[in-house]
Specification:
The longest helix is centred in the N-terminal third of the chain and has 20 residues. This protein is α+β, with helices and mostly antiparallel strands. The protein starts with 15 loop residues before the first helix and ends with a helix. The chain contains eight helices and six strands, in the order H-H-H-E-H-E-E-H-H-E-H-E-E-H. Strand 5 and strand 6 form a beta hairpin.
């Protein structure tokens, strides 16, 4: 049976302490329904991710030297850049290198290619600081509306970006 497998042979992303922490928040007997077990495993994995992410900072996960555009960039040029570099979003910056928006590929492909990036950029984007723990990213990226977090320095200038896939890759390979 599965219960006879040694812990080090299982394909766990969590360890016994994560399961114990999840069980502490579960006030039911072990005679559990499938939904209860799934909820328990989900809480256990979240506990494991939080443990692993607590060792990481946003700076260690982020992609530095992010490609950016200006609000006056023609949309067709921005889309060509997104496709050429296989990226899903471009931060839009002003002349002082402050982020003023985010141009998402999904929005850009639906719009008139002759308009400017600043006309369809989203102004509602998630941000974090380089020294913030990666656990901050879990909350920001758990919502389906946010797929990128812009990492800003103390002067609110862009220093990097983290995507959902960057975070998952970092957590998957965390020690």
């Amino acid at each position: 049976t599965l219960t006879n497998l040694p812990h080090n042979m299982a394909l766990h992303r969590f360890d016994p302490s994560d399961l114990e922490a999840a069980l502490m928040g579960h006030n039911q007997a072990l005679d559990m329904s499938r939904a209860d077990i799934e909820a328990l495993i989900e809480r256990t994995e979240l506990q494991a991710y939080q443990r692993m992410a607590s060792k990481l900072t946003c700076a260690r996960i982020m992609t530095p030297r992010v490609r950016t555009i200006e609000p006056r960039t023609q949309l067709s040029i921005a889309v060509a850049s997104l496709l050429k570099y296989d990226i899903k979003a471009l931060p839009v910056i002003d002349d002082d290198k402050h982020v003023i928006g985010l141009l998402r590929l999904e929005d850009a492909e639906k719009a008139d290619p002759s308009i400017r990036a600043g006309q369809i950029m989203v102004r509602d984007y998630a941000t974090a600081r380089p020294n913030d723990p990666a656990t901050v990213l879990l909350g920001l990226l758990s919502d389906d509306t946010q797929r990128h977090v812009l990492i800003l320095d103390d002067n609110n200038r862009l220093v990097g970006m983290v995507s959902k896939s960057d975070l998952m890759r970092a957590l998957f390979h965390a020690d």
